[in-house]
Amino acid sequence: MTGALEGVRVIDFTERVQGPYATQILGDLGAEVIKIERVQAVTPDGRPDERYGIPQSEGSLYRATFLANNRNKRSLAINIKDPDGRAVVLDLIENADLVYENFRPGVMDRLGLGFDACREVNPSIIYVSATGYGDDGPYVAHPGQDLLAQALSGMGQMNVAPDGRPLPVGMSITDVLGGMFGVVGALAAIIHQRRTGEGQRVSVDLLSSALAAQGEHLVHYMNSDVGEPYRETAQHAHGYIPPPYGFYRTQDGFIALSSGRQIGDICHLLGIDDLSQDFRFDTFEKRLAHRSEFETILEAGLAAKTTDEWLAEMIPAGIFAQAVNTFEKALADPQVAHRGMVQHAHHSAGDVNLIALPISLSETPPSLRLAPPDHGEHTRQVLSELNIDESHVEELFSRKVVA
């Protein structure tokens, strides 16, 4: 079977998470992705590039961030500041469908590889720019990063510690969201390109992605007089939804309950009075106002049994409940195994485990074709496909224009 995006060529100028995650999705779906990398595997100020860093395990210098976001790509290590290097890249773009970059606004223009320069050699090119705050506006020159977008968008205040300190989401959530929204924009542009032959500029940013992901909360806030969402402690999953909705302590761990309409059933299993009939909790609004009291009573009942014991009773009863898993338990879960979410790749650093694309397509399934590449692993291969004279290729290597 072929991938849905077979025949689509992507020139990838991305680093870290937002951009690489997006281009990896395109690669998983069958696109050919050529990752443009620095000639030296260090940044201009001497720091290791995105591929290297603190070892993830003894004997491996590869960072999990790189391994997690760069499969199904070929690596071309090339100096795009050198005129000959830039000429090679423009040759690639001339026969490409899409350019994807996540530098600060203006960087690619200064390198001679902005949208206008790419459109000169390929009028049909799709050019995706992924930034922190957008291509223009008062923050255009500010550094953009996942944590900063969480802070600016209000996402960082969704949960707080017991002392009132805001708690950021413990993963690169706005990077992932920005990557997914970037893929949506890229796919829409590809459809338009195939239909009309026209390319276009696509822009996506971390701040807007974080706001879009909070649409339910923000629309509630803007269109009601309830005010800011409830943020007393980090256990609450939704500031505008009353309990039981969150993670609650059991005898041996935690259980997730999403059961506002099943309070009577839960209380019956717990062997306590039906809290939905208690005058403090008998309406949606009262449960919001008296959330802590409700949850104290609930957790006192849940403390009688283990999480697994409660699940054995709640799930057959139709109650919306699940275990709050560690990574170890999540990866060992039979449903996770059934869905094939863990992939195994053979890599120069050793065999690595990766998380698969969570999309199934019956006729054009995503596939793992290439492990995350070594630095410059495919440089000669890509140059040969451009029919560059062998003597010129060797000159480029000797001058360290490519590696």
From TrEMBL:
Keywords: Transferase. InterPro entries: CoA-transferase_III_domain (IPR050483), CoA-Trfase_fam_III (IPR003673), CoA-Trfase_III_dom3_sf (IPR044855), CoA-Trfase_III_dom_1_sf (IPR023606). The keyword Transferase applies. It comes from the Bacteria. The keyword Transferase applies. One of its GO terms (molecular function) is CoA-transferase activity. Signal peptide: none annotated. This is Formyl-CoA transferase-like protein. It comes from Pontimonas salivibrio.
